[in-house]
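S1.2 Input.
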Amino acid sequence: MINNVVLVGRLTKDADLRYTSNGTAVATFSLAVNRQFTNQKGERDADFINCVIWRKSAESFANFTRKGALVGVEGRIQTRSYDNQQGQRVYVTEVVVETFSLLESKSKSEQRKDQSDSNSGSYSSQQSSYNNTQGNSQEAPRNQQYQNFGNSDPFEKSGQPIDISDDDLPF
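S1.3 Output.
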């Protein structure tokens, strides 16, 4: 079975970073994602998709993004339910983010920030991608996306033939 979501959109407001009772960081945010087609007025409509991100990635996401930031997220759809104060069952569908990427340069983001109403805080981007390899508190840890296979470079002998058997070729 496959449950994989990839979204590119802009943050509708700053991420809401909170901590669970056992100290696990969790951030919630909403992404505005433009639709591919225009409406009858010739304008593009957008979908506003609720997302949640956990642990260190949640802290990084909240620190490095601001309202209006262009981000890419990858994760899975999750549906949950709870009873509200009136005793009614409420169903929530959201994207549980496993990785995210900042898709805009720091200068472009700051330029957009200067043109709009000033928000408190500063935008800082030291890295463009973070990987939440631990999932949320209810999941088993995932394998790391990138593994270290040592420091050997198979192309260190540039210009010399490389010994590869035909069985190793994918075609």
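S1.4 Remarks. Residues 4 and 30 are 18 Å apart (CA to CA).
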